Amino acid sequence: MKHLKLTIGYDGTAYGGWQLQPNRTSVQGLVEAALAELAGQRVVLHGSGRTDAGVHARAQVASCAATLSLKPATVRRALNAHLPVEIRILRVQEVDAAFHARFSAKGKEYRYQIDVGAVADPFLCRYAWHHPRPLDVPAMRRAARLLQGRHDFAALSAKPMRPVESTVRTISRLAITRAGQLLVISIQADGFLYKMVRTIVGALVKVGEGKLTGDEMRELLRAGKRVPLVVTAPAHGLFLWRAIYKR
Question: What phi and psi, each to the nearest 5 degrees, are found at residue 60?
């Protein structure tokens, strides 16, 4: 029995998300099916986190135990031969049995892409939210600084599919960068609530539009209740960029 760590990149456009679910094709389901072909039995994957339908991953991490005699590089090649081109196994590593993709993670980084060009770039349309109206980026950066640190993010997330013990999270980095017509919002935290990143992006865009001030956003955090003004940004601009583990 080998314990494996898989690093997976995928374009989530055509899939119902990472997690197994009835009546929808999931990334986890496809990778598990490819593993079952190699192992000759069912293999259960544990991901570092869930991504919703339409969300992408540059480096999702998953762990599993499987009865395989193949070397990691051979496993990677074999899995990629069984998977659609939108899903790639980037790396396979043998790890200690104690490693768990989710519970061993110390944090994650997500990045959200916004196409701010007057005309949408057709080569970004699957991977960025097109927002042609002007955005006050300096105001967005000032508001972003208010979200860094440890806060209750109940007002900047969606109602979870299942109860959570706490809605308090620590954002260690929240940066907004621009290259040409692409605006990228990068968020690193010790954990994320349901749709937290997309809601934070929606709030920051409202700040950029002049419809929400930084002080008002801070008051929303304190109140702990979501308001209709804050929208959830579309799924297709979001990437799970990396999971963070102790070296």
Answer: -70, 145
d(CA 153, CA 117): 30
- 214-239 core/surface letters (b: 16 or more CB in 10 A; e: else): beebeebbeeeebeeebebbbbbbbb
pLDDT value of position 229: 84
pLDDT in tens, 94-104: 999 999 999 99
The domain of 214 spans 107-244
DSSP element (H, E) containing 188: strand 182-189
Query: Residue 85: exposed, middle, or buried by beta-carbon count in 10 A (0-12, 13-18, 19+)?
Result: exposed
Give the residue among 27, 90, 95, 72 at the shortest CA–CA distance from 245. 95
Catalytic residues: 52
pTM over 0.85: yes
Q: In terms of C-beta density within 10 A (0-12 exposed, 13-18 middle, 19 or more buried), how is residue 58 classed?
A: middle
52-94 pLDDT, tens digit per residue, is 999 999 999 999 999 888 999 999 999 999 999 999 999 999 9
Cα–Cα distance between 148 and 174 in angstroms, integer? 6
Q: How many Å apart are CA 154 and CA 193, to the nearest integer?
A: 8
CATH number at residue 119: 3.30.70.660
123 shares its domain with 196: yes
DSSP SS3 for 26 = coil
The total domain count for the chain is: 2
Please provide residue 207's backbone torsions phi and psi, each rounded to the nearest 5 degrees: -65, -45
